[in-house]
């Protein structure tokens, strides 16, 4: 496999170019790009300037108008995008998202190179190009690009911030991410687990700054978001739809109704928390920064009320860690197959409606594909790290 990779790396720039060319060909005319989530950001963000950010929805279907679901600070960040013509906004966002995909891959590989006491040289740079070409076609990336979602920009930025050696940069970066979409708040657990208390404090400060800026621009919208709309998962979308790959989504499809925060969900969260604790502890003891970050992020994906399949971009650095760090190809291949296939699209097409939770049991079982593999991965991390440490000692 090393020989095969070595030959492939020689053509990495060409492979990336071909991958991007094929992707551009599949997209077709930019005027026909849907990018429905970007259109929500682009069209609704300016309403923050008139205190109507959460009063106006963008029609999508007759039964599912799309609201702006992020904090007011996010609307402020999107204002420059809203100033662009719609065609230009779509092109800029596609290019920015693909660049962030490369940055996400590069950040993970730099950590792996450092863990292996190797310089980030031409070989690792070519690996970044090669894996970017491959990752472009995995389901979380494709859905993010199709919808024009913020995921790639947010994950790449938060990842770079979390692993920064400078406490203020790490904390403020995460704090800004929380102010954009809340979910990056799980990263604070990583700071606490690694005793980076200054970074955790900077995260709180950065988040507070985003909230203050939101109140400065629109106090009514900020008050409504933080004290009325916060936690309303059903406002974000259909909890039981197959595209929601959180524990709550999978459990709801299994039980046939939204389990909310009842005992099945609490039990699943407790199991996830225990697995995450052992995984993070093992990663910290092994000095494996990437493994610790991934364990925390997967915990966040599992326990969030809504984790659309395109939120699972953390699978990309996970596959890289499994391939170059833990060297567990079976688990890496499992994730590549699951995210490289159209299983989520298949499940969505079997739904009579995105709002109808009951499913035939085979489909409900298949709808566990991301969370089940996520739990399995968390359970496997301590053992993989122990095997890796024994291999290092043997060498």
Helix/strand-derived class? mainly alpha
Unreliable runs, pLDDT <50, ≥5 residues?
Answer: none
**Which strand order does the major sheet show?**
1-2
**Helical residues, percent:** over 70%
Number of strands: 2
Query: What oligomeric state do the depicted chains represent?
Result: single chain
Element order, helices and strands? Answer: HHHEEHHHHHHHHHHHHHHHHHH
Give the termini separation. Answer: 21 Å
Indicate the proportion of strand residues. under 5%
Give the overall silhouette. globular
Q: How much is the radius of gyration in Å?
A: 21 Å
Number of helices: 21
Describe what you observe in this structure:
The chain is an all-alpha fold. The chain contains 21 helices and two strands. The chain has helices at 2-10, 12-27, 36-44, 72-82, 86-115, 122-135, 139-147, 151-162, 167-181, 187-193, 197-217, 219-229, 233-236, 247-255, 263-286, 289-303, 315-325, 329-340, 343-349, 361-366, 369-394; strands at residues 58-61, 64-66. A two-stranded antiparallel sheet has the order 1-2. A hairpin with a 2-residue loop joins strand 1 and strand 2. Helix 5 packs parallel to helix 8 (151-162), helix 9 (167-181) packs across helix 11 (197-217) and helix 15 (263-286) packs antiparallel against helix 16. The model has no long low-confidence stretch (mean pLDDT 92).
Question: Key features?
Answer:
glycosyltransferase, glycosyltransferase activity, two-stranded antiparallel ribbon, 395 residues, Mannosyltransferase, globular, GT87, single chain, cell membrane, mainly alpha
